[in-house]
Write a structure and sequence with these properties.
homodimer; 282 residues; alpha/beta; Rossmann fold; six-stranded parallel sheet; three-stranded antiparallel sheet; 10 helices; 10 strands; 22% strand; globular
Chain lengths: 282, 282
């Protein structure tokens, strides 16, 4: 596994490999890797000739007062985990070079970026799309891999790629979960044992919605009320949002038809956690 | 000269050529070509193995009430002009595919886009950077060519390319002028003979500023006053803005030092014209 930090070197490497006819798969991460990330690496390994994993804790996607400075970082641990896979390049873009002091260029997907997480994190998705655009330009991958756990992010990136014609295919992988259903997240690290236990309620609430929809409930408000009641019983869980929405537009549903995105965000102790489930109303 | 309209075909062509080790030069235009555009084509021909000229009247860079619908279009004439050069591909992107009804993805360079032309055309540069990002992604050029006549546009595109790491080199060519100094523009076409004659005052005003600066005048207000007086004497010329600014930040100068961008925009009859001169204070 070769490590590249210099942006120009990353670009030159990719160009050289593309001239040799090699396809490139990019797995963009913020590090502190877990099985969710590793499932993306595995998929990239199967799909592409060369696998590039980037680790960059992107300041542009954190708002003021958010957890940028305490976001978990452990490069030694990440390297060890990646050594079990055949990763060709570990790309560690040089932070000061990525966003210089007078950075003013942004990529934004309007509409979708204002909903759900965008309400409490108004500049978050602009930071995500901007850094992903930068990584796509630096690495020129044929495929880029993202997890469905960040469903809204995935949707926004797909729309950006389509509407700005980035020459890359976005590949989504299912959320990886703990034994009790908690979605893997680097932020789970913030939870103490009590909070960790309580956090399982997020997935339980999603499963409750799934069951209700599958049992024929078509009124989103009734489902949301049940979910809220379940969530409010869990100690230290403060709900941010909870929606049953159209999985393409993220517009909240008045009546359930066909596919439904059930999505939520909650603060559990010091961790802001998100999760979602895509449910088919049969 | 091969014509490509399909976006996917353009991308595939570029990828094929890049695998063969060919470099690509892109000249993005809105058509109704003049000697200014042709100087870009000529420069591209010298620099790159393959030359792609795009013609696309970009709706995203026109505001409401602007001249999108009456912007001059004459593909037959453009083809004839391009036939005198060895252009490899004429890229005519399919308009409905470029911006679909629900288009929400934009690239924006904040700050620079709000100054000068951005004041009277608040969404103009966002439209420009978005379409240029799209063209860069579709064509994957090694070089892209722009005229210095659109100085602010050039500056914004350079900043976008640098800050979003687009793998392309931006090459700027000097403004091409008529016998009386009027900068070539597809919009000169809108002028009747009287307006055409009056329009020469724009360049005369720029030259006046240059002379004053070279003669040691360091107070921008005095120069602007002289320019305004000259411009106001020309029939049918309504000034939009007139600035002496820093050529990197576009911030208006309080005192003249080193390099000065002298730039203006004016309505001359039905045409909004812009021009600029970069002056070195010796």
């Amino acid at each position: 596994m070769r490590t590249i930090k210099d942006l120009q070197e990353m670009h030159s490497y990719s160009m050289k490999m593309k001239r040799r006819g090699k396809s490139i798969g990019l797995v963009p991460t913020m590090g502190y890797l877990h099985e969710g990330h590793l499932s993306l690496v595995e998929a990239a390994r199967k799909k592409a000739d060369l696998v590039v994993v980037s680790i960059f804790v992107n300041p542009a996607q954190f708002g003021p007062g958010e957890d940028f400075s305490r976001y978990p970082r452990d490069l030694k641990r990440d390297r060890k985990l990646l050594n079990n896979f055949e990763v060709d390049v570990l790309f560690l873009p040089d932070a000061p070079k990525m966003f210089s002091g007078e950075h003013q260029s942004y990529v934004e997907v309007e509409g979708l970026s204002q909903k759900m997480c965008g309400r409490s994190r108004p500049t978050h998705f602009r930071g995500v799309t901007t850094v992903v655009a930068k990584l796509l330009n630096l690495v020129s991958p044929d495929y880029a891999f993202f997890g469905e756990k960040d469903f809204q992010q995935l949707l926004i990136i797909k729309k950006m790629v389509k509407e700005l014609n980035f020459p890359v295919e976005i590949i989504a992988l299912p959320t990886v979960r703990e034994f009790d259903g908690l979605a893997l997240s680097s932020r789970n690290q913030y939870l103490n044992p009590k909070q960790r236990k309580a956090a399982a309620v997020l997935y339980q609430a999603l499963c409750l919605a799934k069951k209700e929809i599958e049992n024929g409930e078509r009124n989103p408000h009734k489902i949301i009320a049940q979910m809220r009641s379940l969530l409010s019983a869990a100690p230290g869980v403060r709900l941010d949002y909870l929606v049953l929405a159209d999985p393409e537009t993220l517009i909240e549903l008045k009546k359930i038809k066909r596919k439904v995105l059930v999505a939520l965000a909650a603060d559990v102790g010091p961790a802001r956690l998100i999760d979602n489930l895509l449910v088919e109303a049969k």
